[in-house]
Prior knowledge:
The chain is of the alpha/beta class. It has helices spanning about 20-25, 70-80, 100-110, 130-140, 155-165, 205-215, 225-230, 245-255, 265-270, 275-280, 310-320, 355-370, 375-385, 385-390; strands spanning about 5-10, 45-50, 55-60, 85-95, 115-120, 145, 185-190, 220, 240, 260, 290-295, 325-330, 345-350, 375.
Amino acid sequence: MSSNQLHIGIFGRRNTGKSSLINMLTGQEISIVSHQPGTTTDPVKKSVEIIDIGPAILIDTAGIDDLGEIGAKRIKKSKEAISRVDCAILLIAGNQFGDYEVRLISQFMEQEVSYLIVHNKNDIDKIASITLSTIKQHSKAEILDFSTYMSSNKDKLLNALKRIIPETAYQQTSLIGDLVKPKDLLLLITPIDGEAPEGRMILPQNQTIRDALDNHCITMVVRETELADFLKLGITPVLAVTDSQVFGYVAETLPESIPLTSFSILFARMKGDFTLYKEGTHHISQLKDGDNVLILESCTHQTNCDDIGRVKIPELLKKNTGKNLLFTIVSGLSALPENIGDFALVIQCGGCMVTRKQLTNRLRPFIKAGIPVTNYGMTLAWLNGIFERATKIFS
């Protein structure tokens, strides 16, 4: 699953050997290799198992010195990829190190992406002392003199990669592990509506079930329409987790003594800054007429009249606040609006399809600008008047 895999980006000028490097690491011809500059256009992704590193996604990007109008768009795509990686390789060749590389380093630092610098094609030109000296004026990163044509170099590169991979990239945080004990009964309430995929469950529900099994819990899964029937059995779960969009009904039906939260709130805790989300949610009560609310979906999907982010949350926000609000929706990992200061509130989805790093980097500009951020589940809990109950178990 890509949302749990290490993402490694390869960046540099055209014709430095980025595609050759990714082919060397995968042992396959994933990216087209050519002496013609500009062969790679959009970022190329490849899932691969790297010995001693594990499952990873390698991202081969277009050259940061591309030319023309199309080249500028390719460069933009390459820069956007920085916010989506856990670590990076900055590839140079022919002892070229200048403004292009310095700007990349600045962006790595801004996005808190660890990186190493690889001088490629040393079978043609070894790295010069003046190049080393110049690099060290701008970076403290490890520097390798390298050639993709020398198989013995691969281990050297992998060892260097292991040194820069952040520990957080390997952390598999449990959704409910600290909330339950083995043999506890967990109740999952999962509506099947127009957004549910045919014949299967959505990813947050799947992951929560797996996490419950990993923690040796006894798990009951019901639709909200059968919740009252389950309660008649006289069985009391230690925790109930529901889809956020039926929060209101579930909260009324489920006894107050049973702790209640949502799949989205569980993911908010695992992938986002839970404290900031909680603080940001309170700003819903401060929204004014004309305020613009940004809704961030981290995946792309077919929308319909039941869409939680595009339809239900906006309608409930306007009804709850009584304000004439504006809404901007950005799906997937598309570029954020340039004027982030125009927004009074940011509402992020659970983020089940992205890594914690990707979600953190996506919200960083708003947090730095002092714009409150919250989450789908917390927003819906607030709008249903059960925010304290839905977050109490995490206190």
